[in-house]
Design a protein that fits this description.
The complex is a heterotrimer. By secondary structure, chain A is of the alpha/beta class. Chain A has helices spanning 45-53, 80-86, 103-108, 117-130, 132-136, 147-160, 177-194, 205-211, 229-234, 236-241, 254-267, and strands at residues 6-15, 19-29, 34-38, 61-70, 73-74, 88-91, 165-169, 197-202, 214-219, 222-227. A six-stranded mixed beta sheet of chain A has the order 6-7-8-3-9-10, sandwiched between helices. In chain A, strands 2-1-4-5 form a four-stranded antiparallel beta sheet, with helices on one face. By secondary structure, chain B is mainly alpha-helical. Chain B has helices spanning 2-28, 35-52, 57-78, 88-110, 117-121, 138-160, 162-172, 174-179, 184-210, 215-230, 235-255, 264-275, 286-289, and strands spanning 127-129, 135-137. The longest helix of chain B has 27 residues, at 2-28. The radius of gyration of chain B is 19 Å and the shape is globular. Chain C has one domain (46-347): Orthogonal Bundle (ABC transporter involved in vitamin B12 uptake, BtuC), CATH 1.10.3470. Helices cover 72% and strands 2% of the residues of chain C. Chain C has 15 helices and four strands. The chains are: A alpha/beta, B mainly alpha, C mainly alpha.
Chain lengths: 268, 290, 360
């Protein structure tokens, strides 16, 4: 069994010293894996990501229990730029590029820890290799990019930091299904090309599970399911409330799903 | 003609001071109301180095410049860093309090009397006759030149250097900047250092031209409207704002009433706040940000 | 209700009438009574110097209470406070010099001028927030002070305007003890007005605006009118304080109304504790007495004569330092310290962290 790159154990995060957002969440990412974390709004996905990437302090939140270990180091409640230097880079959900800088400047801004001039140039070239569309837009102000281009730029500037683990928050948000699919394929290419690991947080369950090696499902701040993506896709609960299908293949009414979910919560 | 020269000189003074306000505001959304005092401190540092390195005016100036850069960075590291995450108002009030503290300390150390760093340095300041019958003192001419050079350098720095780009990035979205591995504290300290440096250069040249008194703080404060008129987050704006404020001030003093001198910049400021509060070149969203 | 629950156990309000009482428990009644007695005995035991200090504190208290209404409750930042004080003082001075008006004309006139200026100062607040608002009031401060200076020079009172003491029924108020009671009454009246304002509909609207403007608007609060009202009320009170200051000193001059005065008032609000009338009073006391403490401390140091020439500079530096210390280490101000002490004794011998920020 390989040593995990990132392992989160029994994580508990409390906001404003009063509100518990997530509790008892454990997950791990092994080198070279793509791991998907699924869940609805408020399930605790973003909180988990923020805890891992060191962004809790800004929202007056703290990791109160459990630990986060990355490459054998405990990183909970560390400063975000230090975490980035360790090789753990987040692509946030919103505001993922600097809108008033050009594409080239967006790629120039990130700090590549302990990288020389040549290494840095190589990495920037690599970004244009993975996302050839960006090369044509070098001089464009990032605020004028389309949603898909913006996502590419965000992924690209995360890659400049030479991550070993990429955390991606809602890659599919606000993008056309075609664009999402091509981005997902690109992610697999990047993983294969650079040998890094990816932790993917998604609402769009089917598309995330398609490329993932392992999946977790969060609900109400707790882990409710985990396993092989193919098995998860077959799981009746996933089919019912993420894909909106019943076992017989027909769609359920909203009311029925809601009813179901309410009863489901008791077992979670 | 003389009027025009006066306007240019005053505009250069205001522009050089205003870029300090803009630098800090743009990067960290803090309005530094201690800028006038920091600028005066820079001039006093020159006075101190001038008496230490007698006979080597260039060494004295260089040392004073380095010191003022450090002072700015230290102000951030030891004081303003503590105000991160507090209300904007709290940060502004902290700078005001810092200004008061500095003013008191400067009087204790250097007394409130008028001083002449020019004499201490052994620098002469002859007037230069310009075509058209106007005259300009050497230091004033140097000041205009310094303003042009410093603005050029700042533009180049912010556009082409990696740290400049990071500075702009941090100003737009500090969260994302930190995620990209940028050390925000270093960026802010740099902004404070540069701001104090440019302010100090202005202060030093003014004090070489006309001596060093407590009125320098007021000059620093009067340059603030220039920054705001141009748009608090825009360097180009600061240039134009300085020109507008200086033109208004010189012509009103000349044609209407010399007593107006201290109030004109603020009148211009009020007019601007009424018609276009985000300034000539500023971004409009700035208004909702604070 | 805006008030904190008086004690953690023992006293609870049981009817609506109790909600409206200012003094609720017997302990409060007794201590308020003792305080009133102390205040009225003070002028007969104090030295003239102490009496003067007390008068200054009362004057400062009026000003800081009005600024607290504006900044601490309505959340509108003003750096033009000295300008408003100057407006009040100059209204009194000019009316007296030009028309020989008695104080019962000049004080209401000062209030009216203050209210008018309040609208002028407040208009930018309809469009601007935070920093920009602070800057616009700062600019207005310079304009008002310029106008005052202009009057002084044009009329040839370049050193300032001398005002006769106000006379009531032919009897001039010059006795410091009488001044003490006049100013005490004025401060008490201001406190009473503020207390009643903040626990009324107006006060609730102000606090809603301070917490979140958009939400307040969505709740149906007329943002514009309440903001303007805050400026008008605060400015009128401030102008009256300015006029009283002019009468008390018997002298008006622009030099007295520098930017530093504004900063002192802002410091009173900060050091006292944002959003608390008690804080405004404590802050006024602290900031007014602070220079005298520094002076006393310097006098106690060896080689006191050496510091005499730089006394004002030492004052400046110490004041700046204290302000920084409060801003960085005790943003809740003196009131925060007071509440902590209260909680400590309340919970003693148990240690328990107070849950802050919800009930004030």
């Amino acid at each position: 069994m390989t040593v995990p790159l990132l392992s989160v154990e029994k994580l508990e995060v409390v906001y404003h010293r009063a509100i518990t957002a997530v509790q008892g969440i454990s997950l791990s990412v092994k080198p070279g894996q793509i791991v998907a974390v699924l869940g609805n709004n408020g399930a605790g996905k973003t909180t988990t990501l923020r805890a891992v990437s060191g962004f809790l302090g800004l929202d007056d939140a703290r990791v109160t229990e459990g630990n986060i270990v990355f490459k054998g180091m405990r990183i909970e409640n560390r400063r975000p730029d230090k975490i980035t230097h360790l090789g753990l880079v987040l692509v946030p959900e919103r505001d993922k590029v600097f809108p008033n800088l050009t594409v080239a400047e967006n790629l120039a801004a990130p700090v590549a820890h302990r990288a020389g001039r040549a290494e840095r140039r190589r990495r920037e070239a690599l970004v244009y290799e993975f996302f050839p569309q960006l090369a044509a837009l070098k001089g464009r102000i990032a605020g004028l990019l389309s949603g898909g281009e913006r996502q590419m730029l965000a992924l690209g500037s995360a890659l400049v930091g030479s991550p070993e683990l990429l955390l991606i928050d809602e890659l599919s948000l606000g993008l056309a299904p075609v664009a999402v699919e091509s981005l997902m394929r690109r992610l697999v290419e990047i993983r294969d090309g650079l040998g890094l690991s990816i932790l993917l947080v998604e609402q769009n369950a089917s598309i995330a599970l398609e490329i993932a090696d392992y999946g977790y499902v969060l609900e109400n701040g707790r882990l409710v399911l985990d396993g092989d993506p193919k098995r998860l896709l077959q799981h009746q609960d996933i089919r019912e409330f993420y894909l909106g299908q019943t076992t017989s293949g027909e769609r359920k009414s909203y009311r029925a799903v809601k009813q179901y979910r309410r009863s489901r919560r008791w077992y979670g | 003609m003389q009027l025009g020269v006066n306007i240019i000189v005053l505009a250069a003074i205001y522009a050089l001071i205003a870029c300090g306000y803009v630098l800090i505001y743009r990067v960290s959304r803090v309005l530094n109301l201690a800028h006038g005092e920091l600028m005066m401190l820079g001039s006093y540092l020159l006075l101190a180095t001038a008496s230490t390195f007698t006979g080597h005016p260039l060494v004295a100036i260089a040392v004073a410049l380095v010191l003022s850069l450090c002072v700015g960075a230290l102000v951030y590291l030891f004081l303003m860093r503590k105000m991160a995450g507090e209300m904007v108002l709290a940060a502004v009030l902290t700078t005001i309090a810092l200004g008061i503290l500095l003013r008191g300390v400067m009087v204790i150390v250097w007394s409130a009397q008028q001083q002449y760093p020019g004499q201490a340095l052994g620098v002469v300041n002859p007037a230069i006759a310009l075509p058209g019958g106007a005259r300009i003192s050497t230091m004033a001419a140097l000041l205009v030149l310094a303003t042009a050079v410093i603005y050029g350098a700042l533009f180049a720095f912010l556009r082409f250097s990696r740290w400049g780009v990071r500075m702009r990035a941090a100003g737009q979205n500090p969260l994302l900047a930190a995620q990209r591995g940028i050390n925000l504290h270093a960026i802010y300290a740099l902004a404070w250092g540069l701001s104090t440096l440019t302010g100090s250069i202005a202060g030093m040249l003014i004090s070489l031209d006309s001596g060093l008194t407590g009125t320098m703080v007021l000059i620093g404060l009067k340059a603030f409207p220039a920054a705001l008129v141009g748009g608090l987050d825009s360097l180009v704006g600061a240039l134009f704002g300085a020109l507008i404020v200086a033109a208004a001030e010189i012509s009103l003093i000349h044609y209407v009433d010399p007593l107006l001198s201290d109030v004109v910049p603020f009148l211009v400021l009020i007019v601007m706040l009424i018609i276009r509060p985000w300034g000539l070149f500023g971004t409009r969203e700035e208004l909702d940000r604070v | 209700m805006s008030r904190r629950m008086p004690w953690a156990s023992g006293y609870f309000r049981t009817g609506y009438a109790q909600d409206f009482k200012l003094i609720e428990t017997r302990l409060e009644r007794v201590s308020a009574g003792l305080f009133a007695v102390a205040l009225s005995v003070f002028p007969f035991v104090a030295s003239p110097f102490q009496l003067d200090l007390a008068c200054q504190v009362f004057l400062a208290a009026i000003g800081s209470l009005s600024l607290m209404l504006l900044t601490g409750y309505a959340g509108q930042i003003s750096l033009g406070h000295a300008g408003l004080l100057a407006a009040g003082a100059f209204t009194a001075g000019i009316l007296f010099k030009e028309f020989g008006a008695p104080f019962w004309v000049t004080l209401p006139a000062a209030a009216a001028v203050g209210a008018l200026l309040g609208i002028v100062f407040g208009l930018p607040s309809l469009r601007l927030r935070g920093l920009y608002l602070a800057v616009s009031t700062l600019a207005l401060h310079f304009v008002v002070v310029y106008l005052g200076g202009e009057y002084e020079t044009k009329r040839g009172y370049s050193t300032g305007i001398v005002i006769d003491p106000p006379s009531i029924g032919g009897y001039a108020v010059i006795n410091p003890r009488i001044w003490y009671f006049v100013l005490l009454a004025a401060a008490a009246a201001t406190l009473f007005i503020c207390l009643n304002l903040i626990r009324s509909r107006t006060g609730r609207a102000w606090r809603a605006i301070r917490s979140h403007e958009t939400v307040a608007e969505a709740l149906g609060i007329g943002i514009a009118s309440y903001k303007l009202l805050a400026f008008v009320v605060s400015s009128a009170i401030t102008a009256v304080a300015g006029a009283l200051f002019a009468y008390y000193r018997g002298f008006v001059s622009v030099e007295a109304f520098s930017l530093f005065l504004t900063i002192q008032y802002v410091a009173m609000v900060i050091i006292g504790g944002m959003g608390s009338l008690l804080g405004a009073l404590l802050g006024a006391m602290f900031v007014t007495l602070f220079p005298y403490w520094i002076e006393a401390a310097l006098a106690a140091l060896p080689g006191a004569a050496r510091y005499a020439s730089v006394l004002f500079a030492v004052n400046y530096a110490a004041f700046g330092l204290v302000m920084i210390l409060f801003l960085v280490f005790e943003p809740l101000g003196l009131v925060g310290i007071w509440h902590r002490i209260q909680t400590f004794f309340l919970l003693w011998p148990f240690k328990h962290r107070q849950v802050t920020g919800t009930n004030r």
